Amino acid sequence: MASIPTYRWRFAPDGLATRRQLRALGLRPGGQDVAAQVERPRRRRDPLVAYLYSIEQAKPVRPMTPAKWAALAKANAARRICPECRRDAGYVIAPSLGMCTPCAYPEEQRAA
């Protein structure tokens, strides 16, 4: 297995970018292999590693279709519905509670 070039933090050559940097440019890796990696040293732990991709070989991000927008809206709406009272909470329900705040903390317990 061939090793990939490794650069120190902030010393990567121009023309290479991480996934996040590609996304900020409106690009995606597009199936290309990792071109290099950047290592950021940390004290008493293994270094952080970020993979780099060629900007020239990157492809544009696929646009969202109306069906994808609808599916995303439906998924986000489902996160707002309380499973106890079946009402829209008006906010995303915390997974730690699993239900809206009024159902998790009824009035009887607050007064006591």
UniProtKB/TrEMBL annotation:
InterPro entries in the record: QRL_CxxC_CxxC
Which protein, by its recorded name, is this? RRQRL motif-containing zinc-binding protein
User: Which source organism does the UniProt entry give?
Assistant: Streptomyces violaceus
